[in-house]
């Protein structure tokens, strides 16, 4: 998979790097990313997302709401699912602690 830096994306789009960084920071839900910090790269398909954002802002001086709506219709959000810890009942917790106490008595 080909990855690009912000500078490379800016060059492909003919935009200043600072503008592309602004788009990246304000529309993170739509822009795919690989890595973190200085190792952060975007897959080549991110260029299309940046282009849609730029076009929407240029068109009639699009508002941030328009920019949110347009990629929302065209691209999936980068959702991260975090599993919640299983819920335990008070009875399960008491049983667990009783078992621990019993094991400690056997030692």
Secondary-structure blueprint of this entry?
Layout: E1 3-4, H1 6-13, H2 17-26, E2 42-43, H3 46-58, H4 64-74, H5 90-106
Antiparallel strand pairs: 1-2
Describe, in plain words, how this protein is organized in 3D.
- This protein has one domain (3-79): Orthogonal Bundle (Multidrug-efflux Transporter Regulator, Chain: A, Domain 2).
- The protein has helices spanning 6-13, 17-26, 46-58, 64-74, 90-106, and strands at residues 3-4, 42-43.
- With 107 residues, it is mainly alpha-helical.
- The protein starts with a strand and ends with a helix.
- The chain is elongated and about 75 Å long.
- Mean pLDDT is 76; it is low at 79-84.
- Strands 1-2 form a two-stranded antiparallel ribbon.
- Residues 5-55 form the HTH merR-type domain.
- One of its GO terms (biological process) is regulation of DNA-templated transcription.
- InterPro entries: DNA-bd_dom_put_sf (IPR009061), MerR-type_HTH_dom (IPR000551).
- This is Helix-turn-helix domain-containing protein.
- It comes from Sulfobacillus harzensis.
């Amino acid at each position: 998979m080909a990855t690009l830096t912000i500078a490379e994306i800016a060059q492909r789009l003919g935009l200043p790097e600072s503008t592309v960084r602004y788009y990246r920071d304000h529309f993170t839900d739509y822009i795919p990313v690989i890595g973190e910090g200085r190792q952060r790269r975007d897959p080549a398909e991110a260029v299309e997302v940046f282009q849609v954002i730029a076009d929407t802002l240029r068109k009639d001086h699009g508002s941030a709401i328009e920019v949110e709506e347009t990629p929302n219709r065209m691209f999936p959000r980068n959702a991260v699912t975090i599993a919640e810890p299983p819920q335990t009942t008070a009875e399960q917790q008491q049983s667990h602690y009783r078992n621990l106490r019993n094991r400690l008595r056997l030692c």
